[in-house]
Amino acid sequence: MNSDLGEGFGIWRLGDDPALLDVVTSANVACGFHAGDPATMHRVCVAAAERGVAVGAQVGYRDLAGFGRRRIDYDLDELRDDVLFQIGALEGFCRVAGARVRYVKPHGALYNTAAVDEGQASAVVAAVRAYDAGLPVLCQPGSVLAGLAAAAGLRVVAEGFADRAYQPDGRLVPRSVPGAVLHDPAVVVDRAVRMAVSGTVVALDGTEVAVPVESLCVHGDTPGAVTLARRVRDGLAAAGVPVSTPGAGAW
User: Fold this and answer.
1) In this structure, what CATH number is given to the domain that contains residue 207?
2) Does residue 250 form part of some domain?
3) Which of 10, 109, 139, 220 is the most exposed place for a label (fewest CB within 10 A)?
4) If we measure between CA atoms, which residue out of 75, 2, 5 comes closest to residue 43?
5) pTM higher than 0.85, yes or no?
């Protein structure tokens, strides 16, 4: 189970990072571009290390004002270097906390763009390979990013979203569409268990979509995120699905 954490900035806090760190096994930590700042990164890395939670670099566009949810048409070398910068910055705080960056996950518009755009996906892959080719990439199964990362020899970890609606093609429903974010705990838990057990999800139009996943995300900025995450973890346990920390018998 993973969640996006450290997405506050300065005096503004978003979500309950300590409470979520008591539930999830992987923390996708904002690296200061779409959200986060040095103090927040430091605090979350220390708290994650204390709990044995794996830290991943959640890399995004340089877009604090838009929370990284607006597509940017980057020069691809610049995007590669921005991703490298973010991984390296988070690694510094991980080292201070006695941990290390364990994987990389794009955020927001970069996540969605790299899922379909070969240029931006290749920039993310180039950054990860240049920094540490042993770092897994957390992304949507069947995406362009997943294909390019695998072709480059990187470990790909397929991710599903318990609290997001899906389109029939397996992509996420844009947040601008009503119903894109799910809030009903019973629905979220049912979807999480279904993805973990059968590798499928029901799309917004009612069709069944294959989503073979290894990690499930509950967004940290979703209202009631802590309750949702706890309910999902309990639901997985009830269904006999083991939840492991990366490196402890998992990816």
Assistant:
1) 3.20.20.370
2) no
3) 10
4) 5
5) yes
